[in-house]
Amino acid sequence: MPNNEMLKIIEKKRIELIKIVQKNGINSKISIKFSQELDNLLTEYIKQDLQNKKTLN
Q1: Transmembrane ranges (predicted)?
Q2: d(Cα 30, Cα 4) in Å, to the nearest integer?
Q3: pLDDT tens across the length of the chain (57 residues)
Q4: Domain containing 29 — which CATH number?
Q5: In terms of Cα–Cα distance, which of 45, 1, 2, 53 is closest to 37?
Q6: Does the N-terminal or the C-terminal CB of the chain have fewer CB atoms within 10 Å?
Q7: Helix/strand/coil (H, E, C) string of the chain?
Q8: Would you state the pLDDT for residue 55?
Q9: Would you say 41 and 9 are in contact if contact means Cβ atoms under 8 Å apart?
Q10: Which domain, by its residues, includes 28?
């Protein structure tokens, strides 16, 4: 997946997480679930970015 597309998905998930936390609290199960999903997206983005940088070198 291209980096710019991945960044759009990450930003959408971040906005969703903020809304969920505001509605349900930071320690709610749904907030934790969305936070973990965002973490996974960020981890994947970083891995792809590192791989792209290695390919360029």
Answers
A1: none
A2: 27
A3: 788 899 999 999 999 999 999 999 999 999 999 999 999 999 999 999 888 888 876
A4: 4.10.280.10
A5: 45
A6: C
A7: CCHHHHHHHHHHHHHHHHHHHHHHCCCCHHHHHHHHHHHHHHHHHHHHHHHHHHHHC
A8: 81
A9: yes
A10: 3-56
The pLDDT value recorded for residue 57 is 67
Q: Find where tokens 């590192």 sit.
A: 50
The reported pLDDT for the residue numbered 40 is 98
Tokens found for residue 50: 């590192």
Q: How far is CA 15 from CA 3, 26, 31, in A?
A: 18, 14, 12
Q: How many residues does the chain have?
A: 57
